[in-house]
Amino acid sequence: MLCMSQTVTLKDKTFKPYIPQQKIAEAVNTLAQKINEDLKNDFPLFLVVLNGSFMFASDLLKEVTIPCQISFIKVASYHGTSSSGNVTELIGLTEELENRTVVIIEDIVDTGTTIERLYEVLTRKHVKKIVTATALLKPEAYKKSYKIDYIGLEIPNAFVVGYGLDYDGLGRNLKEIYVLA
Ligand code: IMP
Question: Would you say residue 179 lies in a domain?
Fold first, then answer.
């Protein structure tokens, strides 16, 4: 069994314990209570951005008690033929978004490129309001100006794994968050 005092080696890198389960749980529960209060009249659609957000989304949404819908998406980007360059597509989205309050559920906001792409796509679908919730934010790395409404924990600009986050596909199943040793 793995306990917080142990390091974890994933492929060629070693990670050390960084954020314990209890601290993550407290942050996530605080976010859920805020969402319950702020969005109680909005009938929000939570858009869980896979893969990394699965654990955060599961913990958060178990504590969300307001009427809502939940959908799971992947963000795919390909080079379009038009002059607009990269085209972003949301894979897995079947819900009608027009006039909905959409809550993006992210594992981590780093540079903000993913959030920017999501904003572009969702804006084109004429949503009523875009709200963003992330388990982690790296404020020093964040380069965009989109408001991140709900932030679990802010961390320095370091590479972390666990709680859904991976290094080369590994480490997503770890209950705690680890940082490069
Ligand atoms: P952004 O588009 O630069 O904000 O990056 C967002 C995505 O990069 C996240 O959804 C993660 O998949 C990945 N990412 C950013 N930082 C980390 C990290 O420290 N560990 C694991 N994945 C990360």
Answer: no
Ligand 1: does its nearest atom lie under 6 Å from the Cβ of 43? no
Backbone angles phi, psi at 52, to 5 degrees: -60, -25
Instruction: Please give the number of the atom of ligand 1 that sits closest to the Cα of 106.
Output: 10
In a domain, 128, yes or no: yes
pLDDT at residue 85, rounded to an integer: 63
Q: Which atom of ligand 1 is nearest to the CA of 166?
A: 21
Sign (positive/negative) of CA torsion 159, 103, 48, 60?
positive
In a domain, 142, yes or no: yes
CATH number at residue 99: 3.40.50.2020
Q: Summarize pLDDT for 48-98 with one digit per residue, the tens.
A: 999 999 999 999 999 999 999 999 999 987 776 555 567 788 899 888 999
Print the domain residue range for 98. 24-171
